[in-house]
Design brief:
Distance between the termini: 60 Å
Shape: elongated
Structural class: mainly beta
Strand content: over 45%
Number of strands: 19
Number of domains: 1
Strand order of the largest sheet: 3-4-5-6-7-8-9-12-13-15-16-17-18-19
Number of helices: 2
CATH topology: Porin
CATH class: Mainly Beta
Mean pLDDT: 88
Order of helices and strands: HEEHEEEEEEEEEEEEEEEEE
CATH superfamily: Outer membrane protein transport protein (OMPP1/FadL/TodX)
Radius of gyration: 24 Å
């Protein structure tokens, strides 16, 4: 298949001679399909990407489609993000940042009695955006010093349509039909200091597409088992994100001073492993919520063109989130209606290089400012540290700022009989 030396870049990228250049995702994303995007919303980010067991009437959350069962208004939500990263190796450190539109969702209630809510939208699933340089001195074989530049850009996006339904015994089920689409492009450029040599470039691109589904369950409220007036909600949840075999159209192009040559073109298959998410949430005094989530995705099973990567391993992530949501009563001021959030996470990522596991720890925070009883501006902030400078690897300090806008209105009025 069309790999033509690019599969070896995952080793080259982590040599000590590499210079760190502009990007806003991990240098480790050369392997696989990039860094995972667990949610698009500022609210979920502020809680450390936790909340799969929460049922909300004023947010459209994508962690678990069963959470749409309590929607009380038609909701439109948008999200924008600023991603920044400080990259450090054994000899240098650089800072880079970039802004982007994160995604949108649209949801509306159909039947509150039956827990039917419908939602659709487009959100990111994974992202790649890096650029690295490596300088080489002249040798007898190559009579010129030169610089190799390695770039990666793209990822997968998910378009989804789904709904929720309340089953017997107050068990809530949710499901979506997902369509995945995205382009991933890798380039390698050689620029020579000796003008007698021409710049050359190789570009390998993958156009990916295919279907999947997300299934979710949220348990009944078990708060009564505590026999405590202070505990107002206690639930468990599980969801599974399943992606069918994706089709990848591949193209390899060589560019020199005078020609652009297509070296290969074809179609192959990509298999992205299932993602399992389990969680629980508990609410005290109707205002204070704790959420605990565990993610698992066996990236050791990922394969492209029936080839596996030794640099990928199973992902494990645990997230703990907190939210303060004031009980709305008449007469509260603007400041008394602000919602507050915080979170912690630890992730054993899917990456492994030079026999070293690449792990990540993160802290999160955020708040929501009310624009009206049903509308808000949400802010989520993440600071995470991943990797190490040992063994010729890269340490990454991430800063993510997510701005979300959530609008709610009575577009469709239903009557229950």
């Amino acid at each position: 298949m069309i790999n033509s030396g690019f599969t070896k870049l995952s080793v080259i990228l982590f040599l000590a001679q590499i210079t760190l250049c502009a990007q806003n995702t991990s240098t480790y994303t050369r392997t696989g399909i990039g860094d995972m995007k667990y949610s698009y919303s500022a609210r979920t980010l502020g809680m450390g990407h936790s909340g799969s067991a929460l049922i909300n009437n004023d947010y459209v959350e994508i962690l678990n489609p069963a959470s749409w069962s309590a929607l009380s208004r038609t909701r439109i939500e948008f999200s924008f993000t600023y991603d920044a990263v400080t990259l450090s190796n054994s000899s240098e450190s650089n800072y880079f940042g970039d802004g982007d539109f994160k995604g949108f969702t649209f949801g509306f209630p159909v039947s509150s009695v039956n827990g039917i809510g419908i939602a659709f939208g487009i959100v990111p699933y994974s992202r790649i955006n890096y650029q690295l340089e490596q300088y080489f001195e002249a040798t007898p074989e190559v009579n010129s010093s030169y610089t190799n530049t390695y770039r990666g850009k793209g990822g997968l996006s998910k378009l989804f349509l789904g709904g929720s339904y309340r089953l017997p015994f107050s068990l809530i089920f949710g499901a979506t039909l997902d369509y995945y689409v995205g382009n991933i492009k890798y380039t390698s450029t050689s620029e020579f200091d000796n003008t007698a040599f021409f710049t050359s470039e190789y570009e390998l691109s993958y156009a990916n597409k295919g279907f999947g589904t997300t299934l979710g369950l949220i348990s009944p409220d078990f708060a009564s088992m505590f026999n405590s007036e202070s505990i107002s909600n206690f639930r468990f949840a599980v969801s599974a994100n399943i992606i069918g075999e994706l089709t990848s159209d591949t193209l390899l192009i060589s560019t020199s001073s005078s020609t652009v040559d297509t070296l290969g073109i074809g179609e192959t298959q990509m298999n992205v492993p299932i993602r399992i998410l389990t969680g629980t949430s508990i609410t005290f005094s109707n205002s204070y919520t704790l959420a605990l989530d565990y993610y698992f995705q066996p990236w050791s099973e990922y394969n492209f063109d029936d080839k596996y990567s030794s640099n990928l391993k199973d992902l494990h992530r645990i997230s703990l989130g907190f939210e303060y949501r004031p009980v709305r009563v008449p007469g509260l001021s603007f400041w008394e209606l602000i919602m507050l959030r915080a979170g912690l996470s630890y992730e054993m990522s899917q990456y492994k290089f030079n026999n070293t596991d690449i792990n990540q720890i993160g802290v999160f925070g955020g708040f929501s400012l009310p624009l009206s009883p049903e509308n808000s501006i949400d802010l989520g902030i993440e600071y995470s540290i991943r990797g190490t400078t040992e063994n010729n690897l890269t340490k990454e300090n991430f800063l993510r700022i997510n701005l979300g806008i959530s609008f709610g209105d009575l577009w469709f009025e239903t009557y229950e009989y």
